[in-house]
Each structure stands twice: as structure tokens, then as C-alpha cells.
Amino acid sequence: MRVDAGLSRLLGLSRTAVAALAEDGRVAVDGRAAGKSDRLTAGSWLEVELPEPEAPAEIAGPAEVVAGLTVLHADDDIVVVDKPVGVAAHPSPGWTGPTVVSGLAALGFRVSTSGAAERQGIVHRLDVGTTGVMVVATSEHAYTVLKRAFKERTVDKRYHAVVQGHPDPSSGTIDAPIDRHPKHDYRFAVVADGKPSVTHYDTIEAFRAASLLDVRLETGRTHQIRVHLSALRHPCVGDLAYGADPKLAKRLGLERQWLHARSLGFEHPADGRWAEFTSPYPADLARALDLLAD
After folding, report:
1. Where are the strands (E) in 66-127, listed by range?
2. Closest CA to 291 of 260, 242, 255, 251
3. C-beta separation of 261 from 133 below 8 A
4. Rounded CA separation 255/272 (Å)
5. How many other β-carbons are positioned within 10 Å of the β-carbon of residue 28?
6. Catalytic residue among 4, 77, 127, 179
7. 175 carries an active-site annotation
8. Structure confidence at residue 53 (pLDDT)
9. Is the preceding peptide bond at 169 cis, omega within 30 degrees of 0?
10. How do residues 241-257 score in pLDDT, each as one tens digit?
11. What pLDDT is attached to residue 96?
């Protein structure tokens, strides 16, 4: 492998960060400085000098009213929300927009203190550009139970996606490993040595230029649905980052991917009873669907 690709995987750093280390002369192979595009070979002696770690950024944001954030259900253990577009699940470095965590704080909810400081109570996430159902733990017990449920895949996560064209077969399973894109840090891709990822889909309705799919996830990789459908050559309509047609997106008035977390089902952490919640399509997705049907 190239030095930047290999060290990125070994150290968990971005390829950009590894390239900077190589440019600064901090990477050596068999005692000689190595460039980012040099090759790593078995049996070589690899030395990497890491810089002193920077002080962690303060990313826990204050309570903030989030427009469009709707509470579908709340009790002593969980709060289920309908997340609007343009809202992140939790604060993160570089993100200055609204978050589910800050919105819940503004509404007076106390979330679980388990987990990393910036994502306390968050047991799963939706992309900023993806709308729909999310559950947040408000008790320590619920956090533990729900994290285990997501890990053991006992949660029923269903999404609706409008994709370009008509998948063949109309129902199927995409079993393809996913990891970071080899050239673009902000994207993900199907790669041979990626993490196992499984997506099931069924066609609900076929239109002239697109299809409405019901999608069920077995795994929960970042951008999984978007990556898998793009790899199938049927990207989500409006998902320009993963190969969607910009002309179709413009015709439908879409400024993001047509992807919606339609429903979420799980055993309630308090008593094990099955709980399921559904989110209606937001206005921009509903309007695009109507235009496709005309």
C-alpha cells in the first residue's frame, strides 16, 4: 500500500494528516524519509514521529432551540424525535449548526451522561441531510440497553429512499464492505477490506425516472445506504456527492438526498415491550415525490 493509505489505516488518521507527517519528514522506512506516495512493503522497518496532541476542542454546545425538531415520544428512559434536515445528531469539531442534543436541552430534556462528552445519550445517528426518526437515551440504563440492541442488530431501522432508475432485481440485498473513500476523506465507498455492511431493499413504487424503495439496515455504517445504492448505480435522487444527476435534483427542487428514516422499532429498555415510531415525509421530499408521480 501507499504510505498515506497504509498509515491512515494503521493509525486511524486521515490521509491528509498522514501526508502532512510525511511532508514534515516524520515518516521513515528502513531509516530513510518516506514520501506519501512511496510504497510500504512487508519486512520493512517503519518509524513514525507523531506531534504532540493538541488540547481537545470544546464541542459541547449550549441549549439551542432547533426549528422543526419534533418530539414523537418521551418517558423516563427515552425521547424519540423527528429530526429535520440541516441538524446534526450531536456537536462535533467544525460543525457550528444546530444539533439534536442542543435542541433537546432547550426543550428541558436531560440526556444520559454515558458515552463521549459530545454525544451523551446518542445511541445512533442520522446524517445532517437525512431526516426522520431518532431515539435518544435519557437514562443510564436505557443508554446501555439501546447501545447493545444496536450492536446486536435487534433494532428494526427502516428508511425510504428515492433512487434514480429502477433497480434490477426490484428487491434484493447489497452485501458489500464499506470504508473511507481512498481519495476523498469526506466520502465513503465500497472497498475490498472495508467493514462488513448489509442493506436490504424492496421497491415500493416505480416512476418513469426513479423508484421509491423501502430500505432495511442490518449494519449501521456511515453513509451506508447512500454508498450501497450508489455502488448499485442507482444513487439517491439529489445525492450529488454520490453521483446523482444534478438536473433531476433541480427539476424536483431537491437540495439534498431523498432519504428519510421512516420508522424505528426496538424493545423498550424499561420493560422489553416492542415500541415502534414512524415519521411522515417532510415537505421537500413529499413535493419531489409528487412531481415524480405527475
Report:
1. 70-74, 78-83
2. 251
3. yes
4. 39
5. 16
6. 127
7. no
8. 63
9. yes
10. 999 999 999 999 999 99
11. 83
